[in-house]
Amino acid sequence: MAKDKDLKKPKQKKQRRYKRKQRSTSIFFLLWAAFSAVALLIVLIFGFSQHFTLVETHTQEIQRNVIQKGKQITLSIEATMQPNTPPLSEKEYHAYLRYLSRVNDVGALIFDKEGKLLCPKDDYGDDLSYAKIAKLLDKKLGNENGPVVLQTENEYIYAVRLSYFGAEGYLYVYETMEILDSVAHQMVLKTVMTAIFVLLLTFAVSSGISGWLTKPITEMTEKAKLFAAGDFGVDFRGGDYGSEMVELANTLNFARDEIFKADRMQKELIANVSHDFKTPLTMIKAYSSMIKEISGDNPEKRNKHVQVIIDEADRLTSLVEDLLDLSKLRAGINELKPTKFDLSAYTYEILERFAYLQETQGFDLRAEIDDGVWTEADEHKIGQVLYNLIGNAVNYTGEDKKVLVQVKKSSETTAYFAVSDTGAGIPEEELPTIWQRYYRSSEMHKRPVKGTGLGLSIVKIILELHGFKFGVKSEVGKGSTFYVVFPLREE
To answer: At what angle do helices 379-396 and 455-466 cross, to 10 degrees?
Structure first.
């Protein structure tokens, strides 16, 4: 086990280093780096493509040029060898070949098969190089006179066999690639200079753009810090930086409002729960003292006081169970255990728990329940739903204290449960919030069924876990009807 822990430590350290590295890289730098890299890449691609195109085009031009000029020089030399043409002396031949080289702007030489320079005599060449070229030409030409075109490292060559004053040799016309190399070097240099200029320009432009893009994020970060410190009046909206940032600001403002509501409701819950816990605890303490000091020897009074203690303990248990149920449901700890059961009989059973209100406080709990309505769900959790919805209706019904509970077959596949009260109703603007935790209507009145304000939230979570359709219909001044649509099953 110790070795396993030791093996995990380097990984954990590596992960921490990676996280620190992530946090230290700002969006500003990332944007600048991205802009610069893209711009530099475009310049380099364009520069090298231009360089390649230039070299390719210029090489082809040199090739065409040396072939054309080589043919012209060959024809000119052959013209001097015609029978009706006065023969040239060797000195004149040298001068004529230099003339042809100058006019055609190429180099022209004549050397024998061994590579010895024959014409012009004053040309300073490397006989060893000429010997290598002579061997190469002899191999290329074979028994033919030519012409042949060759490319070496530094020049393009046009060559043909030629008889020079009785000696067999080669006419060697060439054009160097020094200009091409110079142009290519200049192109590379200009590409590098352009890349440096673009990099500097990109740095300036991307810095401005990055600053403009990150400014609203920085502003929102500062506002978020104020919000985290408890300032619920902070407004995340700022300058118009684009629809995405406006949408983000609106979302954060919505989250702020929702968190503010939740915070306010949570404080109300704490106050309500504190009050609801304090009252039974006070009653338990008071009646315990009364038993100890007054009614301990009087069976009738003692039993009455003990019953009060039991009732208040049950009330405390109910409050704790509500809190635990909500916590478990929100955390997903409570898994559904669906079974098939008689919804009609189960609803009657739940209604029996409210019978004491009819006997003691004059409530009129009416039931319109079809017999034999079976469904499939988690029976215990559905019991919480029915109890909470009926208890909610009892709490908010009107002065006539009427509550109607219905269970009917609404179609061949569904059953309909509804509970209606005759209370003040729920304003339309409050309808979306009634299922939230801690929600309580602003209507102030005495509640016969005590609670923490968590009942409807528990109902919502349970029904959503089941995937059942549910809702509320309400009209101000006429009451509300909460309903649930259950799947209908065979008995």
So the answer is: 140
Task: Work out the burial of residue 287: count CB atoms within 10 Å of its CB; fewer than 13 is exposed, 13-18 middle, 19 or more buried.
Answer: buried
pLDDT value for 2: 47
The arithmetic mean of pLDDT across residues 377-389, rounded, is 91
The string over 356-376, giving b where at least 16 C-beta atoms fall within 10 Å of a residue's C-beta and e elsewhere, is ebeeeeebebeeebeeebbbb
Task: Evaluate whether 165 touches 157 at the Cβ level (below 8 Å).
Answer: no
In a 10 Å sphere around its CB, with 0-12 CB exposed, 13-18 middle and 19+ buried, how is residue 392 labelled?
buried
> Does residue 97 contact residue 80 with C-beta atoms inside 8 Å?
no
Residues 6+ apart with CB under 8 A from 83: none
The C-alpha atoms of residue 453 and residue 465 are separated, in whole angstroms, by 20
User: Rounded to 5 degrees, what are φ and ψ at 192?
Assistant: -65, -45
Tokens 């303490």 belong to: 285
Could you tell me if 31 and 209 are in contact, meaning their C-beta atoms sit under 8 angstroms apart? yes
| pLDDT tens track for 54-109 | 777 877 888 888 888 888 888 888 888 777 777 788 888 888 888 888 888 888 88
Q: Identify whether the C-beta of residue 476 lies closer than 8 Å to the C-beta of residue 412.
A: no
How confident is the model over 316-338, as pLDDT tens digits? 776 777 677 767 666 665 678 89
What's phi and psi for 67, nearest 5 deg?
Answer: -65, -45
pTM of the model: 0.45
